[in-house]
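Entry:
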Amino acid sequence: FGFSLAIPFYLPSSMFALKRGGKDGSATIADAFDICGFGLLAVFNGIVARVLDVSGEVGYSSAGMLLGRKRAWLPVFLWMLGGSIAAMVSLFGAVWLEGER
């Protein structure tokens, strides 16, 4: 996930902030991106915390408990998959739009 999440998060937003905000306002635009990113991170951490609350016990006493743990993690992995796809689309979109200019 590092290749698909880090590059679209840092490069397009930094280029956009510098072009739109210039030397004086780019920090404000970059901070707005960070606020949105940390807000999504808080939502994601809440989902993970709920999963840990459901499946946090140590030990595998039965196959049913193991299956319940696997199902509890499904929303987390779906969020990660969705974030990776959104990051990939935003990276290719930003590169394509930059090439159109």
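The chain has two helices and no strands.
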